[in-house]
Amino acid sequence: MKIGILSDTHNHLHNLQKAMGVFEREHVDLLVHCGDFTQVETLQWLCEYRLVCAFGNGDFAYGELLGMLKGFQPQNMGGFGCYFELGGKRMGVTHGHIPRILDEMLHSDLDYVFTGHTHRRQNQRIGHTRVINPGALGGTHYQSRSVCILDLETEVPIFEEIQEK
Predict the structure, then answer these.
(1) Least C-beta-crowded within 10 Å: which of 35, 80, 87, 128?
(2) Measured CA angle at 70 (ends 64, 72), to 5 deg
(3) SS (H, E, C) the chain
(4) CATH number of the domain that 75 lies in?
């Protein structure tokens, strides 16, 4: 079972389209978006996948985002902090801009926490929990653009750089 992890698209549709090509090639089963779509239309690019989405500090229309998300597939989840289980692993996703939510996740018994906000890739173990930030597809440019694929069988996160025009 594979998870495609992305964050901070900031409505950068060209990079998002390239990321979707990576996810299709890797045959991911679930997409996790760690927040900052910035525009509702950006979410439409993800509609064919099962989704778990965190809302970020740039997602002012989070009510519309949640409505659209649930309209795609009823089992889709969205919020400022979401908890779910997949492949026997307990997971949480948050954007990271609300420290209380991130701290709560890091101090619970989760196997994985997916986060964004910093626009920097992260693969770190904090106690029992592996924290993964896929990097950013748009917005402020600290590193090359990237997404992450997590294969739950190998438990190895693979970061894939997205080449910009």
Answers:
(1) 128
(2) 105
(3) CEEEEECCCCCCHHHHHHHHHHHHHHCCCEEEECCCCCCHHHHHHHCCCCEEEECCCCCCCHHHHHHHHHHHCCCCEEECEEEEEECCEEEEEECCCCHHHHHHHHCCCCCEEECCCCCCCEEEEECCEEEEECCCCCCCCCCCCEEEEEECCCCEEEEEECCCC
(4) 3.60.21.10
In angstroms, the CA 39 to CA 130 distance is 29
Backbone φ and ψ for 43, nearest 5 degrees, come out as: -60, -30
Could you report the per-residue pLDDT of 108-146, keeping only the tens digit for each? 999 999 999 999 999 999 999 999 999 999 998 889 999
Domain that holds residue 111: 2-161
